[in-house]
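> run fold 8-oxo-dGTP diphosphatase
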Amino acid sequence: MIREEPEKPIVVGIGLMARDGRYLIRQRPPGSAMAGVWEFPGGKCEPGETPEQATVRECHEETGLATIAGRLRRRLVHRYPHAWVELFYFDCTTADPAAEPRPETGFRWVEVQELLTLTFPGANEPILEELSNEAGRTTDPT
Ligand SMILES: Nc1nc2c([nH]c(=O)n2[C@@H]2O[C@H](COP(=O)(O)OP(=O)(O)OP(=O)(O)O)[C@@H](O)[C@H]2O)c(=O)[nH]1
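> ok
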C-alpha cells in the first residue's frame, strides 16, 4: 500500500493541568497509538478550532473537569511513525480549584519527580525537562 505524505502536521492541543506542583496524567488507552504510554490530556483540533479551544474541550471531555487555559508554554513539531504532529502545550488550571477528575477516566495528579520516572511520548521530553527545572527552583531554598 502506498501512503501519501500529508502536507501539514496534525494540530494538537495539550493541557498541562497543574495543582499544588502536581500534573494530571493518565496512560493512553488500549487500542490507541502508543497505548500504555503516559500522557497529559489533549487531542486533535476539530475544524475551525484554535489549539487553545481544542485544549480546553479535550481536557474537559477526557477528565470531566471544566478547564481554564493559561499561557502557551511551547509549540513544537514532531514526527512519530504513526503521525506528524504540531503540538501546542498550554498551562491549564481547573475552573473549580477543588474538583477532581472522574475516576473512570484514569487521570491522576502526579508530582513532577514521579513524572520523570514514567514513559511519555517522545515529543514531551523538553516539557518534562522544563517542569523538572521549575520544580527544582521552587523547592531549592538557596
Ligand atoms: N493527549 C496527548 N497527546 C500527545 C501528548 N504528547 C504527544 O506527543 N501527543 C500526541 O498528540 C497526538 C494526540 O492525538 P490523540 O490520539 O490523543 O488525539 P484525539 O484524542 O483527538 O484522538 P482520537 O483521534 O482518537 O479522537 C498523538 O499523536 C499523541 O501521540 C500528550 O502528552 N498528550
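The longest helix spans residues 125-139.
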